[in-house]
Amino acid sequence: MNEKYANLLKNSNYMRFLSANLINRFGDCIDAMAMTWLMYQVSGSASASALNYGLNYIPTILLQPICGAFVEKRDIKKIMLVSDMLRFVIIGSAAVLTLLGKIQGWMIILGTFLISTVEAFRVPAQTPMVTLILDEEEYTVGESVSSSLSQIVQMVSIGIAGFLVTWLGTSTCILIDCGCFIVSMLLIAGMNIKKTRTVESGSNLLKDTVEGYRYRKKNRTVVLICVTAVLLNALIAPLSALEAAICDEMFHRGPEIISLINVFFTLGGIAGSILFPKVEEKVRPSVLLSACFMTLAVFYGAVIMCSHVYENAVLVYALMAVTPFLVGLAAAFVNVFVAVTQLKTVESSYLSRVTAIGTSLAQRGIPVTSFLVSLGATRLSVYQLIAITCSMSVLLGLLFVSSKLSLLQSKRQHALPR
Questions:
Q1: For the whole model, what pTM was predicted?
Q2: How far apart are the first and last CA of the chain?
Q3: What's phi and psi for 346, nearest 5 deg?
Q4: What residue segments make up the domains of the chain, in order of their start?
Q5: Which of 64, 86, 151, 154 could connect to 360 by a Cys-Cys bridge, CB 3.0–4.6 Å?
Q6: What is the pLDDT of residues 190-209, one digit of tens each?
Q7: What's the pLDDT tens digit per position in 255-298?
Q8: Distance from the Cα of residue 411 to its chain's centroid
């Protein structure tokens, strides 16, 4: 195992690729907090924040399956570079408008939509890159290292994001994200990739997209994972969509409480990512999926409790440290399992399409839930919305605990017959 980690450190392409992704993650986390509060400040409405959060996922759902087919036929390195450049331009424009005091709600929504559209191309390009810079026996360790370090960066960036927004202002935080895009472009540009992917000739996007759906549908493991991911994302969406309102109306505190939640969620994720190679063959995936729902229910229950005892700072901080840690631990096991399963069971010529379609399907629950939350926020209190989400988490957790799901599939699926 130690030798595998040492080989990763010697792999310059992997280190550049990993560093670019980590820097991107840092900038995105800072930017996400800044844009959330900027939208809330501009609109003064929890409903508008939830609407903007939901719109963020529309391009992923509608465009990413087609983008995956588009990327499959092209140079994935160039696509990653162009994507970072376009995101730099869009985010930079938002920063300038904020500095000039010209930013408006519709501009934030448009910028969010454009960024998500660009990312719909980058994500399908990023996934197959792993197969070009690592050997198959290195996938598990490589994904474990990538996931754990990504969680560490996320923990640090989210942990300081709330304070940076308070001390430096939203526009400066957005500019930090711009700088991260530049560094990412330089790192990706420095990669020297010698492996090539097996790609069939032709460029019929519709046909390629349909084949991607057919290929994915045959893989029972991935189908079940997608269904579960839709439900999990739908249950997490209310927290992200209403985080500013939750801070104000339930915790009676500023954005630092969200930073605390995210820090301990990330700590749990780091622990889960590191431990995954050791527990991979000891714990059934169905147990891991069940744990995600149950820990999420416990977390939302803790949020509700904190709204009644918000004056007791010690109890609030303790609950918002322990319960997010448990959610992060369970989620990390599932995330790494999904990543490794796809790399091992999907042929490289289908990997961009299958990953893009999977991401699209998995995230469909987020905008639907966000729009429902946006609508519900006009009639229900934030407390009531969180209580409903908690109840749904309990029901789904019990359902998964009582069911017997077989998710193990280690053989690589072959291409569809012509």
A1: 0.63
A2: 41
A3: -110, 130
A4: 10-192+202-402
A5: 64
A6: 888 776 555 555 556 666 66
A7: 778 778 877 887 888 888 777 777 766 767 667 777 788 888 99
A8: 27
